[in-house]
Design a protein that fits this description.
Elements (H helix, E strand, L loop, with lengths): L2 E5 L3 H10 L1 E3 L11 H11 L6 E6 L2 E8 L7 E3 L12 H4 L16 E7 L8 E2 H7 L15 E4 L1 H14 L1 H4 L15 H7 L7 H10 L2 E2 L2 E2 L2 H13 L3 H7 L4 E3 L2 E2 L11 E2 L1 E6 L7 E9 L6 H19 L6 E7 L4 H10 L2 E5 L5 E5 L2 E9 L4 E7 L1
Parallel strand pairs: 1-3, 15-16, 16-19
Antiparallel strand pairs: 1-8, 2-6, 3-4, 4-6, 4-7, 5-6, 9-10, 11-14, 12-13, 14-15, 17-18, 19-20
Helix pairs in contact: 2-9, 8-9
Length: about 375
């Protein structure tokens, strides 16, 4: 399972969210359009799955552990009707429609997620340095947690989080009769469940507003919006989208793809995911690598994508290119791009020892996107 760590300002907020089993990111107010940071938040919510773990970060300390749970078939929702529209709302106008109400700030709490303790939210916070030192090789995304309200990380990094939190709270685990070491939990889930009605708060209907707000005909002005659309449609198992990209058990975006260096200079993959061998989780079978361009593709975009492919080969696949499916998504492709892919989009490699096998990889897909205003989704077409 994946994990999320949410950044908070103070312990009062931690108590509020852990007691109620609800978290809502506070976005800056839109001005008639969504910024890329907003679209990135919608993308992160889109990939949340029931069972993913939840942690909180306050002033260098990490608190956990919770897990996302399903209400009426999902673990994440828009907080009120029309929350996907990039417009300002008055608190009094939406107050009766809110799933989660924190007062005036709730006009900019556009999305919520639902969770419960797993097994508990412990009062003992663990310093980030202690967390990183507990399993240095496992932590990738945590090292890049900078100027973000929250981040997502994969199953291996999540297990490292669970390990250190549980180890430091063994005394609480071994004394279930005492409650001094955990936060009180009195969920607001029943109240929220009672408000949910078909379609009103689902991300599917709201995401069409997010995409429409940056559309110019069938063209999208923000690459982050394209990321959000792809991740939402893949997470929702949209048949046409999965027919192009495949189905994936874990999906994320803006994932680190370079050695550690100052955050602003790190390379990040626009799309990243993996799938497990069916019935043998967590053994990974395939990896998704994607680069997105809102305009027509350029020759260097192929080269950038292949740089990410080589990174994933070394960092996750340990030399086996056959595990990687790579895609360049763009508004258009000319014949020079197609020829360049055929020229450079090949990797020859060797697997095995006795016998060793020489193999060839050329699994790069060129995908043309087009926003469909009628469906509110993005259509995709493989270019050959």
């Amino acid at each position: 399972m994946a994990g999320y760590i949410f950044s908070l300002d103070n312990i009062d907020s931690l108590c509020l969210y852990t007691q109620n089993g609800v978290y809502a990111t506070k976005l800056s107010s839109p001005s008639g359009w969504w910024r890329t940071s907003h679209e990135g938040t919608f993308a992160d919510y889109s990939t949340m799955q029931t069972g993913d773990n939840v942690y909180f970060f306050i002033k260098r300390k990490i608190y956990g552990i919770g897990k996302l749970v399903s209400l009426n078939g999902d673990c994440k929702f828009f907080n009120f009707s029309g929350a996907g529209k990039p417009q300002k709302f008055s608190y009094q106008t939406i107050k009766k429609d809110l799933l989660w109400d924190e007062g005036e700030v709730s006009v900019n709490q556009r999305c919520i997620c639902i969770f419960e303790p797993d097994p508990s939210f412990f009062k003992l916070g663990i310093d980030m340095d202690d967390v990183l030192a507990s399993n240095p090789s496992a932590f990738k995304m945590l090292r890049a947690f900078w100027k973000r309200s929250f981040i997502k990380f994969d199953d291996k990094e999540n297990q490292a989080f669970r390990d250190i939190v549980l180890k430091r709270n063994q005394s609480t685990l071994s004394n279930p009769e005492g409650n001094n070491g955990v936060f009180e939990f009195k969920p607001s889930h029943d109240q929220i469940s009672g408000q949910l009605s078909a379609g009103r708060y689902e991300l599917k209907s709201g995401m069409s507003s997010v995409l429409s707000s940056c559309a110019d005909g069938n063209y999208l002005r923000h690459e982050m919006a394209i990321e959000a659309g792809i991740l939402h449609q893949l997470s929702a198992k949209d048949p046409e989208t999965c027919a192009v990209f495949g189905e994936w058990d874990y999906l994320s975006h803006q994932v680190i793809a370079s050695p550690f260096k100052p955050i602003d200079y790190m390379d990040k993959m626009d799309l990243f995911g993996h799938s497990y061998i069916p019935e043998f989780e967590p053994t990974r079978a395939r990896f998704l690598v994607g680069e997105i361009k809102k305009d027509a593709a350029k020759l260097e975009d192929i080269d950038q994508l292949l740089k990410y492919v080589d990174w994933v080969r070394d960092e996750y696949c340990f030399g086996d290119y056959s595990m990687i499916d790579a895609f360049l998504v763009a508004y258009d492709f000319d014949q020079d791009i197609i020829r360049h892919k055929q020229d450079v989009g090949v990797r020859r490699y060797t697997v095995g020892v006795r016998p060793a096998k020489s193999l060839e990889w050329k699994n790069v897909g060129l995908v043309k996107y087009s926003f469909n205003s009628a469906s509110g989704q993005i259509d995709f077409e493989l270019v050959h």
